[in-house]
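Contributing new complexes? Match this layout with magnesium ion.
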Amino acid sequence: MAHLIELKDVYKIYPMGGEAVHALDGVSLTIDRGEFVAIVGQSGSGKSTAMNIIGCLDVPTSGTYRLGGVDVSTMDDDRQAEIRNKMLGFVFQQYNLIPKLTVLENVELPLLYAGISGQERRERAVQALDRVGLADKQKHLPNQLSGGQQQRVSIARALAGKPSVILADEPTGALDSRTGREVLEFLQKLNEEGDTVVLITHDNAIARKARRIVRLQDGRIIYDGDAAAPQAVVRAEEEQV
Ligand SMILES: Nc1ncnc2c1ncn2[C@@H]1O[C@H](COP(=O)(O)OP(=O)(O)OP(=O)(O)O)[C@@H](O)[C@H]1O
Ligand SMILES: [Mg+2]
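Output block (do not edit by hand):
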């Protein structure tokens, strides 16, 4: 069977004055269903660029990207948006919850945009909130929840769309370390239950919670393997150079 995610010799080049910035400089990477992968690297290494391509928010300058066996690297915006809604669930550092809507309504909203009927919307949203342990908070407004709970609502919102991949970009960035760990354990649990999770982080301690680490440096992969291996984590002082 085809890989769920397959990047082949992907370049993302930004012209900057007379120079060209190689944000991604020949990245080849495959991710299969059921994996939990952390993409790490220092600031400017290309993590967000990789995330935008994997998330169908941007296209490579050259090279190919296949998602679920389909070449999305050359699609127009409308087709990309369609694939994005169908296959991807996003979790961001900022939860992006709508303050005036209840927790339940927030989780239902993307399903409304996806044209899913009222009853199914409700069922899926309730089920997703149940999965994140917030079934009893449906009627709350976001500001009546803790930061960790709000992040779990945003995870429920991603789950309700039944995505093939959960893409989490610095999901613990706005949380204290204990709450951040809880959210991470939560992503681990979803992965154990079968979900595919791709996590973007600059934090080695967070990355080690994944099963596999892909480390970027200057737009290239410098490590791809077991998250528990000693080589997976480069010490901070070595990273500075
Ligand atoms: N729109 C753009 N135009 C020009 N250069 C860009 C653009 N977007 C990103 N870059 C450059 O590409 C490189 C990779 O950027 P990217 O945002 O992917 O890094 P990152 O690993 O996400 O960093 P951070 O941890 O700070 O978020 C950087 O050198 C950046 O300056
Ligand atoms: Mg970034």
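Reviewers usually confirm one structural detail per submission. For this one: Strands lie at 5-16, 19-31, 36-40, 62-67, 70-71, 88-92, 165-169, 197-201, 212-217, 220-226.
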